[in-house]
Every structure is written in C-alpha cells, then in structure tokens.
Amino acid sequence: xxxxxxxxxxxxxxxxxHLMIGLRTLHLMGVCGYAGFFLFGLASERWLPLGLxxxxxxxxxxxxxxxxxxxxxxxxxxxAVLLKLVIFGWxxxxxxxxxxxxxAIILLAGYFSHAPAKVRYYxxxxxxxxxxxxxxxxxxxxxGLKG
Length: 147
Known about the structure:
The protein is an all-alpha fold and 147 residues long. The protein folds into 2 domains: 13-68; 70-147, no CATH class. The protein has 6 helices and 2 strands; from the N terminus they run αααααββα. The protein has helices at residues 16-40, 44-68, 76-93, 98-114, 117-120, 133-143, and strands at 122-123, 128-129. The longest helix is centred in the first third of the chain and has 25 residues, at 16-40.
C-alpha cells in the first residue's frame, strides 16, 4: 500500500478543522448563489462569482481530504464527492438536466454529510468499514490479508 497516498497515520495540521469549517461555509454560500444558474437560469454575471467560490472551496476541501488520507476516495463519502463531480460535468454538457442534477448533488451532499460513520467510511470495493488507511491496514493484518 503506497504510504504517500495512504499514509501510516492521517496527516493533520494545527487549524485544519477550522479551515475545513470555513471552506464548507464558503462552499455553501457559493452553492446558494450557484442555484441562480441551476434553478432560475439567471445571467452569468449574477451567479458566476458565487459559482467560482463553490468550485474553488469544494476543490480545496477535496485536495485537503486526499492529502490527509487518500482512502477518502475509496470510502462512500469520497465516492459521493466524485459522483457529484460527474453529475456536475454532465450538467455542463447537457444543461437540460441542470435542475435534476442540482437536486441530485444536494441530495448526495446532505445524505453523506450527515450519514453515520458506518456509511461514510464504508469501502464498497473491499466490504470494509475503515476511517483511515491505518484502520484498513489493521483490519487486513487481523484477517491475514495481503495487499
């Protein structure tokens, strides 16, 4: 298991939690403004700055989660983020689905933000619940699995 992408211990730094809270808050503000495009078809000058705020803050949160522990991308919470990005891309290429896509993204965000740990940290490709790469390694060692 690659220890840069899947570190021995989750990477942290002082103030990370507060930074993530701030980024989530900015992201929500941006998504609210972006609703002007998705739901009301407003002119881009009305929603674009907030759309860019949503995109930038969302990408920063994603990068921080992956940096902390790449297992994020294999957990249900990370897979939900990837699915939201796929839906977002689909909307860009087929704007006729922007309302349905917007609500699908909100549904995924709301569910996985508030789901219990056994759902958020579930690894569907291995059938294991692991909150970190270290926990996944412990599980594999306990079960005598390789890889």
